[in-house]
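Side project, low priority. Logging it here so it doesn't get lost.
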Amino acid sequence: MQGNLGAMDTIGNRRLASKPFKPSRLLKMSLSSSEDDPIAIAPNPHETDKDDTILENGTYADNDSAEEEILRPNLRAPAGASRARDIESLLDSFLAMKSGQQGKSRGRTARFPGVTEETATSSQCESSTGTKIKDVFSGMGELNNEDTDSEDINPEDINYVDTDLEDLARGRGDGAEERVRSEWKPIHFAAKGGRANLIKAYIEKGAVVDSREDNNATPLIIAAGLGHLEACRVLLNYGADVNAQEREGDTALMRASAGAKADVVRLLLSEGADPSACTTSGWTPLFVLAMHWVLEKDHECVSEIAEALIDAGADPDTPTDECSPLSISVMGGASDVVAFFLEHGADPNQRVSEVMTCLQIAGHEAKPDIITLLLQYGADVDYRVAGIATALHHTVRRDKKLALDAARVLVRGGADIDALTEDGASTLHLVVQAGRLDVAHFLLSEGTQRINHAEVHGITPLGLAVFKGNLDMVNLLLEHGASAEVVDKRGFNMVHIAAEIGDIRVFERILDTGADIDLVSSDGHNIRPLDLASERESDEFAFMLLERGAKP
């Protein structure tokens, strides 16, 4: 399964799945905070690369606007995708981040157990849960992906299977074309219809009990996926292979689990079905059951099936294409399902495709109830995958209703509020990036020591707030001791930043701090705030500096 995740640069030159980096007017920081738009964070107009030509006045020939340079990497699946398609695209997207391939399957069309290209149907069913799962990855890759460029991806180029969960278990369903059914034998049709007496008659007249159709499925696999208990019983009584696999590795137990056919699952297990059998994609019966559980929410029935599978030896920690039943439950925001797998021994610190932990996923989705569960079962609150970001980092940058509550749970659980990202950004940087005034209040009340901390390019949280034109955030930071005199690696103070790209109200507020209005940059260009203000379309910035005594 392949696909794409959203992407994001971290502060600085390190390029994650984005356009080629051009620092001609903006220093990009890819810690995007909303579902809709990634956000550029700080000015760095005089950092050079081979594509930028410095003019004599220290400006650049490249005149790209800030709006044009803001990265927009998030790939959105078409609205109205079915629930199965949502989960399929989620897993495709998830694995693409590690492989560096997008919009491609591993040599075949990715699909759910029981669904083939020929039999997939297109049921356009809205699913808020599926959408939420998918959205997890539009941001997760932003902190991790280094090789892909999602702007080059057309969602229609990705091979999805568009089908409802009921169709997962259908096998050769009603939509099968004549050419597909051409290799079916009478016993397959009888299995599809659940006609136990007819199956018995066919076998007694010489039909092969494990007869294979064109997809290599046996009658038992077909009957099990559709929940035909008596048909399955007859086939097993006549010696059907309970662990037979079709072309993609589906077993009868896999299909019965995908459709949450409890009675059939119990029968198959009693006859020796292997609960650890995997498809060619590595999916186990417990994994596809977890998908069904998250999406359909028929909890009592599914929990009984899950209990039966685990009692029979299914491992809740078995990786499935580098995912697991627990992680898929966390992605879906299903706290009761998460609790079930944790109670049955799932590792709360398991990694997902070597990219995220379950706690980081829960933080990214701002799910305080799931965060609480994971911490109760021993999740490492500050664990980082590849050293990039903690769960708190993922949480505070999200434009989610419960982000503040989730941040509180993490901090109360011991999260380090002053931990830095790989590129030196503080938690407060990420909060300012997201424009979350409520979370900023919380971090400051918790005593963060990073209020004047500069990331790798020397940009402080105040510098970022000035760049974003967020007057309320600027006032809050100044009230808590942020300095307008801190200079970045170019030698720019807050007056420089506000003069170049700030809001006029923010510019006036920075001037009121008494910061040096004639400071000359230390980057070799000898730039003063008035030089930058003179480039603005509005003369108001320059006049305001002159009124404050700036030297022309």
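Brief comment: Residues 1-160 form one domain.
Revisit when time allows.
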